[in-house]
Amino acid sequence: MSPTLRRRRLVKERDPRSVRQLGVLFCMCAGAGALFLFSLWQRVELTGLLYRMMELRSERDVLLETHENLRLERSELRSLPRVEKLARQRLGLEPAEPPRVFTVDESGGLVAAGMLPATPRQR
Fold it and tell me: Strand, helix or coil at 82?
């Protein structure tokens, strides 16, 4: 090398390929970071939903138990011996005699009757 070349200052020039490679590397890192953040967000959402599901299951169990208790209470209140006892005590009703026993369906029609048909009362 000549002595004049040694004395000259070396000037560094930017290589356009290195800038492009740096941009590609940055985009790849940003994409990987975005994927990581997305998967982290998904995991947090999943955990929250699992906790909510556990709360709803326990609430459902309590409601099912309450429903069963209310069904039992209703069946106890609707039992025929209890209704008969209340009819005798509170309302003063007596058991019907055979000629006065009638069976009526839901629409109000006579299904079966005792020995004698009912006669309308005369006023």
Answer: helix
- The DSSP secondary-structure symbol of 10 reads P
**Which amino acid belongs to residue 10?**
L
Could you tell me the sign of the dihedral formed by the alpha carbons of 75, 80, 82, 88, in that order? positive
The pLDDT of residue 37 is 98
pLDDT of residue 12: 74
Ramachandran angles phi, psi of 70, nearest 5°: -70, -35
* Per-run averaged pLDDT (10 residues), the chain, 123 residues: 65 80 95 98 98 98 98 93 90 77 75 53 48
Instruction: Say which residue the tokens 């955990």 belong to.
Output: 47
CA-to-CA distance for 112 and 36, rounded, in angstroms?
78
Return the SS3 of 121. coil
Give the start-to-end residue ranges of the domains of the chain.
16-94
Strands, E assignment, 1-123: 102-104, 110-113
